[in-house]
């Protein structure tokens, strides 16, 4: 096991059978590009620089759905995109729940998002309203 702070994931394509990938505490943003990792079931991107600016998070989630079709566990805690009230005082539980619906709408294979198990009710709500659940507050 190696822990490396990185901005580039070049060379990752040689690990096509990778099942778990921990990229916490790096400088990764919405422009993150992963190679196709068909066996990847766990991805943690905690404490990076991922945000909801100008649909870029939507693009990132679409990319993850395409390159990691087996993804079951994703964690984005500590990123601006993940509105956690413990990290940002302006965010509340409703903001976090809307974020969950949006992510679950994009990544339908997830069983866990951040530290919580995905419930049947959340999955149903994500199918119905998830596309409209971006967390946006007036300035």
In short, what is this structure?
By secondary structure, this protein is of the alpha/beta class. Helices cover 26% and strands 9% of the residues. It has one domain: Leucine-rich repeat, LRR (right-handed beta-alpha superhelix) (Alpha-Beta Horseshoe), CATH 3.80.10.
Would you spell out the secondary-structure blueprint of this structure?
Elements: E1 20-22, E2 42-44, H1 56-67, E3 73-75, H2 93-106, E4 112-113, E5 116-117, H3 120-129
Parallel strand pairs: 1-2, 2-3, 3-4
Antiparallel strand pairs: 4-5
InterPro entries: LRMDA, LRR_dom_sf
Organism: Elachura formosa (spotted wren-babbler)
Protein name: LRMDA protein
Q: Detail the poorly predicted runs.
A: none
What is the rounded Rg? 14 Å
The biggest beta sheet, please?
A: 5 strands, mixed
Order of helices and strands: EEHEHEEH
Tally of DSSP helical segments? 3
How far apart are the first and last residues' alpha carbons, in Å? 44 Å
**Percent range for β-strand residues:** 5-15%
CATH topology: Leucine-rich repeat, LRR (right-handed beta-alpha superhelix)
The CATH level-2 architecture is identified as: Alpha-Beta Horseshoe
Q: How are the strands ordered across the major sheet?
A: 1-2-3-4-5
Helicity, as a percent range: 25-40%
- Estimate nothing, just give the exact number of structural domains: 1
CATH class: Alpha Beta
Count all strands and give the number: 5
Q: Rough shape?
A: globular
Instruction: Assign the structural class, choosing from mainly alpha, mainly beta, alpha/beta, alpha+beta, or little secondary structure.
Output: alpha/beta
What is the residue-averaged pLDDT? 86
Organism: Elachura formosa (spotted wren-babbler)
Protein name: LRMDA protein
């Amino acid at each position: 096991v190696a822990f490396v702070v990185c901005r580039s994931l070049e060379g990752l394509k040689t690990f096509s059978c990778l099942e778990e990938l921990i990229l916490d505490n790096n400088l990764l943003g919405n422009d993150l590009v992963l190679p196709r990792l068909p066996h990847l079931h766990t991805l943690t991107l905690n404490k990076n620089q991922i945000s909801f600016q100008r649909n870029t998070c939507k693009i990132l989630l679409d990319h993850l759905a395409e390159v990691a079709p087996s993804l079951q566990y994703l964690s984005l805690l500590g990123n601006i995109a993940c509105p956690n009230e413990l990290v940002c005082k302006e965010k509340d539980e409703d903001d976090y729940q809307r974020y969950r619906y949006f992510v679950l709408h994009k990544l339908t294979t997830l069983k866990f998002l951040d530290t919580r198990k995905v419930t049947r009710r959340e999955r149903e709500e994500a199918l119905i309203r998830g596309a409209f659940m971006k967390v946006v507050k007036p300035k």
